[in-house]
Structure formats: C-alpha cells, structure tokens
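Q: Is it fine to ask for two folds in a single conversation?
A: Yes, each is treated on its own. Send the first.
Q: Here.
A: Result:
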Amino acid sequence: MLKSPDLLVVLEISGCDEKRIEAFELYQKAFNAKNMYDNIMPDESGQIHIMMEINGYKFGIFPGEGHNLRGNVSCQFEFETEGELRKAYDVLSQEAQEHSIGTDFWCKLIAMVTDKFGVFWCLCVPN
C-alpha cells in the first residue's frame, strides 16, 4: 500500500533524449536501477522522461531545459488525494518566493513552490 506522500527524486538531465537514456543506462549499471514502465514517456514537446526504481526509491530522469524545475535535483511528492496535496501546498506557499497550482498532462493536480528558504517543491496527484 502506498504511503502518502510518496517521494520522487527528480534528476534533471539537459540536452537530447540520448543523454537521459545514457544516464539511465549508467544508473542501471551503478545501482541496478529498473525502468518502472515498459516505455519511455514523452512530454508535450516530445522529450522523454524516464521513471526508475533504485532499491525501492523512485527517481525520475527528466529534461532540464525549458521546464519550471530548479537546479539539477528537485523534490517531488506524489499524493494519493488532492486534499493531502492542498494541505502541503497551503503550508509551503506561505511566504513562498513563488508558487503555482494547476493541472498537467500527467497528473490530476500539480503545485510548484519555491518556499521562503529557496527550496523547490513539486507536489502532484498522478493520473
């Protein structure tokens, strides 16, 4: 049973899709990483996203250019319910440097918050 919230570590890899595939192959070798899906998921721009599991932990290898994520690593929590997400969002967005909430092609609800300490959080309820 999923414990909510579930943590997803996001690794932003800039450049072409081949760089993200190369990164996944490296993590497969280094950590015995497993692809969580049979295929690689492109976004609206056609860039690939790779979801992998390492020792029970979820990692996403996502494009690093043209996205709203910050730096090379960001924290993403996946919630089971919109209520859980909104509670976390309400707390994190107080005195936040910037924040937004809405929907995306891969989730029912998504919120992005750079909190008052400069930490970037992506909160979502997956489809």
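Q: Second one now.
A: Result:
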Amino acid sequence: MRNYGPTGYLWELWHEGPIRDRQNVVLVHGYRLPLSTLPGRCDEQFSRLDRLLQACCDCNVWQFEYVGSPLGTYDWVPVYASRLDAALNRISEITGNDRFSMVGYSMGGLIARQFIAMGGQPRVDKLLTLATPHMGVHLEPFDIPYAEHLYPRGGMQMRPDSRFLWDLNTNVEESTAGEFASVAGHVRGYSDGAVEMGSTSLVKCARDGSVERSFYFAGVSRSHLTINRIKSERDEVFRLVRGFVAGGVRGISQERTSEKPGDYGVPFFLTFAVRKGPDAGKGYPYVVARKSGRCYRGNRVWTQGAVTGSGAQIYTVRLGCREDGEVRIYYGPAQYVTVHVVNGQSVVVAQPVGDGPVRHPQDGLAAPAAAV
C-alpha cells in the first residue's frame, strides 16, 4: 500500500498494486474520532474492498484519507471536500483519467456530495453511499447549539437542522452524480446503531416538500461499524458495491431491487424553515399529523438556530413510523401550511413557511393549543 498524497500528511491517497488504464474508484471514509488514525498509515477502513474490487471489476481503487491529524474530524465538511478535489487532481495526473466513481461511507458520502456541489459534478460518473446520513443524524456529540461554533464542526453540520444539509438537500440535482444509490444498515429496529434508516434515503423534493424524484435505496442487516468492513466476495454489501461500480443503478438493481425506507417501518425527518414572525418562540412552530392526530411540539421540534440564505430559521421534526399523508406546520395562531409526507421518507420543505397563503383549521381538525 503506497501513499500518493502530499508530504506533510494534510491528506493521504492510498493505492495498492499497479496503476492501469482503467476506471478510477475512490473510497471516502467516515467520521474520525480523535486518535483514531495515525499519519502515514492506511488503516483500511474498508477492509478488503479495494483489493476485491480491483480483482473483480478491473479498476484502480484509491482510499482517500481526508484527516491528516490525530485530532480527528474537527473541521467543516467543505474543507474536506476541497481536499478531495486535490486528491482527484492527483489521481488525474497519475492516470491521465479525469472521470471517477466514488463510494462514500457515512460522512464520506456527504463529503463526496459537497465536492459535487462545489463544481465537481462533471468529473463524477457514479456515487454510492453506505450508511450516509443524507438527512442528518440526531446523536451526541453532534447536538451542539449553532451559535457556539464548537468542535466537532463537521459533526455539527450533520445535524438534520443544519444550514449545510439544507443547502445540499434543497439542491439535490447539483449535489449528486448521474448514477446515484444509497445503502443503509439496520440492527436496532430503525437504526444501524448510529444513523437512522429514514435519513439514509435521498430524494429530490419540490418546494412544498413533495417527492419529485426517488433514487435507488436498499437496506442490509449490518451495524454502522460493520457495513463498510468487507472481507469476502460473498459479502452482501460487496455484491451491491460491485454491481454499482460495474453497471451503475442497473447493475446494483440486478443484485437487489430498489426499496423504500417505509418498507422497514422507520421514523423519518421533516425539515422546514420558518420566517421569524411575532409568534416565534411562543410555542411555535409545531407540527400536527392529520392521520394520527399526533402533535409534535416543544423539544420534539429541533433547531440549532441555523438560517437559510433568505433568513428563515431551520427546524426538523422526527415523525413516527406510521405517519403518512397530510401534515400541518403551525407557525402562529390558526396559521399553518400543509405538506404531504410518505411513510418513512425524510423530506425537506424548501419554501419557507409563512411565504405562502395562510390556511385555517378545517375539515374537522382543530388547531391544538400552542405549547407554553
């Protein structure tokens, strides 16, 4: 295993064996805890995936290490995306090929998407993500108030109510490759132990939150710490990766047909933004699911204070696994907007709440009293 990255170990680029005139596949690892990696050594987070792919798919496989410090993943995702850009430039110099396929594990999938959003889309033919929290992760130590700007910065950006994810997920066409697929793990009901299945499936949403386009999604019975540990050709995850690298969405679909998160009965995220009005902070906003009558309010409505480019504050609610159909977002007394959700599928309402026409309680669904 040789490092083709720069001296000083700001980032590392590992490859084993001869370099051939073949497809370049880049593996992007996940979040690093402090002291979890040492400069100058490839810890092979993907186990034997690189060797197996090079043998089965006749391609060059590169392991990209974006953390060159024992401090772990402490910086912003765009910083690591810029390092990925430098690594791809290096691969192009070595191979003469400026087209790539990528496999991103966990946070690595978000780094790959951010690279694409920063102008890298023409260079990426295929992107497969493993256990990537596309819609965010509500997990310590990432529940940090936005205003504090504390470490871990990248972790803070993975919150479902972050400006970073808002920008990525309201511009899905510009932050994905032409061939895109995601694979999720599950070992504890609706989660792989770290990332919820409802967060790993990516869709393109209209401004009202309705789903305009779905992408390939499949679930496997693996934990977050084992979904990337591929050791043999018989491994289910390896077969999915191999199918995607060789044939894109069609290739992976031949291994497993595409699924929906709702098939697993999982909770999911509804992310929206609210214009600051006179009732902000007075028990608003809150969310009511019409089918179940359940009201989500108080500490069930998350925000770290991040705002959109137009100044609206971003909120996220985790809806229950059986929620489906009409959901109302109340942002003032008898003032709400209606969105329609699909069981298990996390969505983003891009149009700020309060910009559209005001609707009043009707059809027998009374507005609950605001929380105090």
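Q: Anything structural to flag on that second result?
A: Two points. Residues 358-372 have pLDDT under 50 and may be disordered. The two ends are 60 Å apart (CA to CA).
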